[in-house]
């Protein structure tokens, strides 16, 4: 498959140096680590669930408010970020493939690409946030949209009065995207670390636990966004 | 011959974990699950002491109906810190983090937990959380009750105290999640060859069920306190009505964690009881699979009952009815366990050593604690009893009477394994008797006061309750004395206890197959799985030599 | 399409390597579903918009989990973990929303009562 494929033919490979003393063999280590990361991801799902509860409760009680508020969010930005994040997930999944096949160059390339796409996501997010904050769209009771931004809304929406609790929607918006953004930031740190180790040549078919684990985490971050995008931007 | 098996085995397997690596750094940054467990134990024992001091202040304040020992404000802070410290720093982490960390890898015949670095991280997160709790005290304390309900807890007049407490809970919560991940991964993947799921000691089934709750419920606590923190700082309008929020939502969030957390507390306690009752009845545990499965059932049903804390909080009527029904379901697996334990005692050769005495008091107290839970789970009886001393007595019966007593039972049971020293049996028995008496004298009067309508959390009370409160305070002194005797037993054991044999009680679980204390790598030769409750392969040696395998081989 | 690098691994735990076809196909279907969810949100279906959007999102999440996260080829227990987490989260959301909708009339009534008294 690649010119490095010969590396794993011999058992007792150099990757054995990453075998922790309390595991029987590399496979036990890989399977246990995978289980561990999955359990952690399960925990993450419940961590985010609280924010989905808050979203559900306020949406159920203030349907009109939520419908009104989503017009302030630019769906094109959200869709762009969805494309960026799905691409980064593809790249992350590809990096696992490269590691499994011992394609070191491909691994470095896909890891770097994932990092860059994650950075792109945050840049887009930064523009969205700063645009909103400048237009007075903050959280809670302090949320006062400026006349300029109100003028950009569709005519049918402009005719409506600005709802009293508009800030509640944006509190939830900032909470959900903020917590997600923190996860993206953590993911970028992890990819930076992986790139360092991949450059050192740590990963190969016999040892790719960190590449796999971080990719799983990254897919979860992608998955959360898959829910946030329609809930916040579209409906 | 006496004492010989222990010492010769010790020479063969190398140094004990206690002497492997010297200096304070070799403890603080140790990846060894045994050392991490011991550090947890020290911290948790200190938390118990701290929470106990707060409890004594509360009890002495209530000696007179008008209070008077401390100001009413100080009283509010005392009962809050008593609850918060006891729950977050003693009862929740107590058995899993201290004893679980020590015992889990030994019971599966592994060298360590699955992720030793994560384990150390979990310990330090817990330390950080505990430090923030103590810092809360320094900046003036909090008086919200351990439940931290808004709107009261998040009023804009509140200062640093509440923020420190919320951060402390957040950190301790993440410590708990990581412990859960470690235990489940360890039990799944690191079992000894030949050790199937139904060869696991029941303590591990209990910790497995606990792990499910730790992983799936604790993150909700994390997001709850994070939202509380942000609400207080940024006025988001999620929980606080004055900014458009909903305080009942906080209670849903809080109890979605905190009710399952009750099972984080009790399930490991039940696990210890399952071990001790079998070993000290010299009989295989009765209904192994039922006990194992009821642990899982309790964990799962435990997720479905959180609303029974909110019957009078403005929760809807339908939710009240559904939660009341589901709550009563928890009684079924709990009763299954209890009956199986009692059946284990039946026709057993019961050995009345200290751990067993604690377990027998567990049965009596957990029976009462569990059954009074039915009064509170049933909607009609809960409404008059809500927020009275009946509730206080009920949860103390479960959390102190059951969990703390099981904690002590487990500590006496595994103490020889942890330290390599025996304790003085007379001191152990004295502590068990004093704790049992003191506990009942403290909390039975509170049931009575509660049924007569004495509300909880007030610094003063009506004249009619004075007798019950004074009896309760006397009981608290007895209970404290019992705990001090236990402490004395442990300190004396460390100073001058006899050397412990590898298997002092005749247990058939794997932790007894290695030396006391175990070597750094736990086992000289990686063991094979055994039948955990089959005692036929063991023979008691005369004197202090404990139990040894009949013939050379293990029980299988 | 399934290649195994099993030389250095214990039998029974063959590692699954995703082929480029599966990887690209997964990404392409995610993109297509993103377009679909945007398109459907432009049509006003009332409350059904939420149901549809969530349905598409769940499908997308399922695709990510099955292929990108290897769940289709993994130990079954990993799937149990994810499904259990999703179920508990769904239970949490559903029950609290159910409850809050039920007690809103009580809050409105209390507000109505409080207003004249306050004024």
What best-fitting shape of chain B do the alpha-carbon axes yield? globular
Strand content of chain C: under 5%
Spatial strand arrangement across the major sheet of chain C: 1-2
Multimer state: heterotrimer
Task: Tell how many strands the DSSP assignment of chain B holds.
Answer: 2
Portion of residues in beta strands of chain B equals: under 5%
Shape of chain C: elongated
SS summary, helix count of chain B: 16
Indicate the low-confidence ranges of chain C by residue numbers. Answer: 1-13
First-residue to last-residue Cα separation of chain B: 25 Å
Low-confidence stretches of chain B: 1-12
* Biggest β-sheet description of chain B: 2 strands, antiparallel
Mean pLDDT of chain B: 93
The most extensive interface between chains reads: A-C, 59 and 52 residues
Largest sheet of chain C: 2 strands, antiparallel
Could you give a short description of this structure?
Chain A is mainly α and 235 residues long. Chain A contains 8 helices and no strands. A two-stranded antiparallel ribbon of chain C has the order 1-2.
Describe this structure in words.
- The complex is a heterotrimer of chains A (235), B (556) and C (119).
- Chain A has 235 residues and is mainly alpha-helical.
- Chain A contains 8 helices and no strands.
- Helices cover 73% and strands 0% of the residues of chain A.
- The termini of chain A are far apart.
- In chain B, helix 4 runs parallel beside helix 6, helix 6 packs antiparallel against helix 7 and helix 9 packs antiparallel against helix 11.
- The radius of gyration of chain B is 23 Å and the shape is globular.
- In chain C, strands 1-2 form a two-stranded antiparallel sheet.
- Chains in contact: A-B, A-C, B-C.
- The interface between A and B is large, with 35 and 41 residues.
List keywords for this structure.
heterotrimer; A: 235 residues; mainly alpha; elongated; B: 556 residues; two-stranded antiparallel sheet; 16 helices; 2 strands; disordered N terminus
What is the topology?
The complex is a heterotrimer of chains A (235), B (556) and C (119).
Chain A: H1 26-61, H2 63-69, H3 75-101, H4 104-134, H5 147-151, H6 155-158, H7 166-200, H8 209-234
Chain B: H1 4-13, H2 24-28, H3 33-61, H4 72-107, H5 116-138, H6 160-189, H7 202-234, H8 247-279, H9 288-301, H10 317-329, H11 331-345, H12 354-377, H13 379-385, H14 389-419, H15 425-451, H16 466-496, E1 538-540, E2 547-549
Antiparallel strand pairs in B: 1-2
Helix pairs in contact in B: 3-4, 3-5, 3-16, 4-5, 4-6, 4-8, 4-14, 5-6, 6-7, 7-8, 7-9, 8-9, 8-11, 8-14, 9-11, 12-14, 12-15, 14-15, 15-16
Chain C: E1 3-4, E2 16-17, H1 20-41, H2 48-68, H3 76-118
Antiparallel strand pairs in C: 1-2
């Amino acid at each position: 498959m690649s010119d490095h494929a010969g590396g794993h033919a011999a058992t007792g490979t150099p990757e054995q140096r990453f075998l922790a003393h309390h595991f029987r063999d590399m496979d036990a280590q890989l399977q246990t680590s995978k289980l561990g990361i999955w359990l952690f991801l399960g925990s993450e799902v419940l961590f985010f669930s609280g924010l989905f509860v808050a979203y559900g409760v306020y949406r159920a009680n203030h349907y009109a408010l939520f419908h009104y508020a989503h017009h302030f969010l630019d769906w094109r930005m959200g869709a762009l970020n969805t494309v960026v994040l799905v691409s980064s997930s593809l790249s992350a999944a590809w990096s696992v493939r490269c590691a499994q096949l011992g394609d070191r160059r491909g691994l470095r390339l896909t890891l770097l690409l994932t990092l860059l796409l994650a950075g792109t996501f945050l840049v887009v997010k930064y523009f969205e946030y700063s645009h909103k904050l400048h237009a007075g769209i903050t959280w809670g009771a302090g949320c006062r949209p400026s006349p300029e931004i109100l003028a950009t809304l569709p005519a049918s929406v402009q005719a409506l009065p600005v709802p009293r609790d508009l800030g509640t929607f944006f509190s939830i918006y900032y909470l959900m995207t903020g917590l997600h953004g923190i996860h993206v930031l953590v993911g970028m740190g992890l990819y930076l670390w992986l790139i360092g180790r991949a450059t050192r040549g740590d990963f190969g078919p016999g040892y790719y636990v960190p590449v796999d684990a971080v990719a799983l985490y990254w897919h979860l971050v992608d998955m959360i966004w898959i829910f946030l995008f329609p809930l916040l931007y579209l409906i | 011959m006496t004492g010989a098996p222990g010492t010769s085995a010790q020479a063969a397997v190398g140094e004990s974990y206690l002497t492997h690596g010297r200096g304070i750094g070799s403890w603080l940054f140790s990846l060894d699950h045994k050392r991490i467990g011991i550090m947890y134990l020290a911290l948790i024992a200190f938390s118990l002491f701290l929470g106990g001091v707060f409890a004594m202040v509360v009890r002495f304040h209530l000696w007179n109906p008008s209070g008077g020992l401390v100001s009413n404000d100080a009283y509010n802070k005392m009962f809050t810190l008593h609850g918060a410290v006891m729950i977050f720093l003693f009862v929740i982490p107590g058995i899993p983090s201290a004893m679980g960390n020590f015992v889990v890898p030994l019971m599966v015949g592994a060298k360590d937990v699955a992720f030793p670095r994560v384990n150390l991280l979990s310990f330090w997160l817990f330390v950080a959380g505990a430090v923030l709790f103590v810092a809360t005290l320094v900046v003036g304390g909090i008086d919200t009750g351990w439940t931290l309900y808004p709107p009261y807890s998040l009023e804009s007049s509140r200062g640093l105290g509440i923020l420190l407490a919320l951060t402390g809970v957040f950190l301790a919560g993440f410590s708990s999640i990581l412990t859960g991940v470690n235990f489940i991964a360890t039990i799944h993947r690191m079992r000894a060859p030949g050790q199937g799921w139904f060869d696991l000691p029941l303590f591990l089934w209990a910790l497995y069920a606990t792990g499910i709750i730790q992983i799936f419920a604790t993150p909700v606590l994390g997001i709850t306190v994070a939202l509380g923190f942000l609400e207080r700082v940024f006025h988001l309008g999620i929980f606080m009505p004055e900014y458009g929020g909903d305080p009942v939502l906080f209670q849903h969030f809080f109890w979605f964690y905190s009710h399952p957390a009750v099972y984080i507390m009790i399930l490991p306690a039940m696990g210890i009881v399952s071990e001790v009752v079998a070993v000290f009845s010299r009989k295989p545990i009765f209904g192994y699979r039922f006990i194992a499965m009821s642990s899982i059932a309790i964990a799962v049903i435990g997720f479905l009952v959180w609303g029974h804390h909110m019957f009078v909080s403005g929760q809807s009527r339908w939710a009240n009815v559904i939660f009341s029904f589901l709550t009563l379901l928890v009684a079924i697996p709990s009763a299954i366990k209890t009956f199986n334990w009692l059946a284990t005692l039946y026709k057993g050769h019961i050995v009345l050593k200290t751990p067993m005495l604690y377990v027998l008091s567990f049965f009596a107290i957990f029976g009462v604690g569990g059954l009074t839970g039915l009064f509170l789970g049933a909607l009609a009886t809960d409404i008059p009893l809500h927020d009275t001393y009946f509730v206080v007595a009920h949860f103390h019966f479960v959390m102190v009477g059951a969990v703390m007593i099981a904690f002590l039972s487990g500590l006496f049971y595994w103490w020889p394994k942890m330290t390599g020293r025996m304790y003085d049996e007379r001191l152990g028995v004295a502590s068990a008797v004093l704790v049992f008496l003191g506990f009942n004298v403290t909390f039975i009067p509170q049931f009575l006061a509660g049924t007569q309508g004495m509300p909880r959390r007030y610094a003063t009370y009506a004249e009619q309750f004075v007798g019950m409160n004074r009896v309760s305070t006397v009981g608290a002194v007895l209970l404290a004395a019992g705990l001090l005797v236990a402490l004395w037993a442990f300190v004396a054991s460390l100073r001058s206890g006899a050397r412990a044999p590898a298997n002092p009680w005749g247990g058939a679980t794997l932790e007894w197959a290695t030396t006391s204390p175990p070597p750094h790598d736990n086992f000289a030769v990686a063991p094979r799985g055994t039948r955990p409750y089959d005692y036929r392969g063991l023979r008691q040696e005369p004197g202090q030599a404990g139990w040894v395998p009949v013939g050379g081989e293990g029980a299988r | 399409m399934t290649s195994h690098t099993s030389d250095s691994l214990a039998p029974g735990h063959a590692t699954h390597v995703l082929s480029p076809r599966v990887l690209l196909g997964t990404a392409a279907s995610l993109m297509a579903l993103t377009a679909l969810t945007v398109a459907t949100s432009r049509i006003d279906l009332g409350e059904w918009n939420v149901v549809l959007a969530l349905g598409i999102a769940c499908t997308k999440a399922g695709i990510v989990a099955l292929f990108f996260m290897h769940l289709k080829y993994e130990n079954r227990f990993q799937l149990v973990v994810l499904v259990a987490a999703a179920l508990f989260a769904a239970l949490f959301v559903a029950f609290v929303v159910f409850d809050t909708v039920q007690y809103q009339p009580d809050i409105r009534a209390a507000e109505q009562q409080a207003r004249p008294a306050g004024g």
